[in-house]
Write a structure and sequence with these properties.
647 residues; alpha+beta; Arc Repressor Mutant, subunit A; Rossmann fold; Serine Threonine Protein Phosphatase 5, Tetratricopeptide repeat; 4 domains; seven-stranded mixed sheet; three-stranded antiparallel sheet; 26 helices; 18 strands; elongated
Length: 647
Amino acid sequence: MLEPKARHLSKGGVPVHLTRKPFQVLLYLVEHHDRLVTRRELLDNFWEGHDVYDETLTKCVGAIRKALDDQTERPRFIETHWSEGYRFVCQVEEQLIPPETTVIEIEKTQGVKIVVAEEGNHNALLADQGNLPLPQFARPLPLPKPKRFSRRVSLVMICAFIALIATALYFYRPRAGLNDHSSPPIRSIAVLPLKNLTKDPANEYFSDGMTDSLITALSKVDGLKVISRGSVFRFKGQEVDPREVGKQLGVAAVLEGSVRKDGDSVRVAVRLVSADDGRVLWTSEMYNRRLQDIFGLQDDIARSTVAGLKVKLSGEGEARLARRYTDNVEAYQLYLNGRYYWNKRTEEGLKQGVKYFEQAIAKDPHYAQAYAGLADSYILMGVGDYGVLPPKEAMPKANDAALKALEIDDTLAEAHTSLGFLNYVFDWDWPGAESHFRRAIELNPNYVTAHHWYGLYLAVMGRFDEGIEEEQRALELDPSSLIINTDLGLIFCYARQPDRAIEQLMKTLEREPNFVVARWRLARAYAQKAMYQEAISELQKAIEVAGRRPYYLSLMGYVDALAGKRDEALRILNELQGLPQSQENLPALIATIYVGLGDRRRAFEWLNKAYKERFTALIALKVEPMFDPLRSDPRFQDLERRIGLGQ
């Protein structure tokens, strides 16, 4: 029996403990049985709009289920709509019954049907449990003259009585599917961005950093596929259904949660959800820790998640999971800030990232991850897409930082990946690059950047099948990455498979029409098929969005030349030659227009300028389709030999 005014719940006369908040939520769900009650509605009504994490509500509903002996998987009373809300699922409707009937007791081993009469017109409320066959009625029970019940009280009493009967039914039915020990381990997971409950943008770096740290920790678990940051962070700030996330990212489980950082206090709540059916596989208690214990907190969450996945760790796996790169909390927070700005991928963000990484190193000179972050920052600052620093200035700084990281910890996959990139893009040390990439993947098979860059390396070596396979592995770990999807299209261009390139790049543009790098590379693929008008159209769209950048102008001039629009090609050539010659890859870009114009002498003149500056465009010399007209020329073969790509 459930008595609203007395806030009392009992079973067979035995009191059942249900605290105030779960009692109120149960009452509200019953009163609104005719619709889905959203999580936001319940939080606003019973927590007065305070900034609490959804886990508080989940635990509250869990307490109700426990009192009613209800289950999430096969709900008898409260049905969960993941990430949306709850619905009271006992069917409740009005029914006319004979006036002399008050309450009918039923056979408890079958379906549940309860009828409570009201005075007056004898309208009754009926609750029908599930779709079970209606039972045979037993004898009427003599009751005192019924009192007038409000609709609200009647509904609650009905639910209480159903709960009593359901308790009995619960112990009679088979309990199939409840043996969690028999379920196999889960081998793939996505960690959704932890919600920043402070609502203070200044703390975004911390919630994002905690997410990154969990991804990094779980990535070290053998045999576990962990989706990388790029794909999960597109869900940031969204209310998403874990089942839909699982479908989009190809994982079996989703970890979601929240973090609140107030001064020296950190509160974290997380839960592991099945992406197959939305079941909660594991729910944490609310972690309340001091900031000084942040590393212990991360260890606890990672270990509990692994346990929830039913993945067994070896002794070596335990050690990798527990590995810490610093014990200095200040250095760690500075590092998180550095990665936060580095991930913005803007000129200002990269500069800010460098400052934070350097401050982290000042706090802890043995912080290998901070050196790796510094190396990654200088790498991006020195490549053509950003052009913050000339390659001759940026790449040596990146090299020094990566070497220092490995001097401190030679098992750091990020540092090996950085050195692999530097070896092949700047040093033209092809064997060294492959060695570092392979070592990085061995150390962390889930490190998507290692697979991504290694795939590009294999492609420029002419090992196209291996490059495609490696790039596709990167996409498994980061399926939403625009740049990885686009680079796979580029590899198809290198492999002389323009049709596959066009298909891949068009799929990328369906996701993000304004991703101009994909349009630029789609234009390359069209040019390979002599579809010059289509190529020009794509380049015009790219220039519309990004402006007259040298990369896009160069390809436009090349296509114009091939299409017989010589005057247009020469105008673009003059525009590019008027730019500072130190600009990243400009000499190589100018050379391609001369190739289109059929002027070999000037093409080699500009290619040699690019060689002297060690511009990164030359790494693709061996496979770049635009240079095909030059391949039989001894000057081209000599250039390949000097770069280390020829015999």
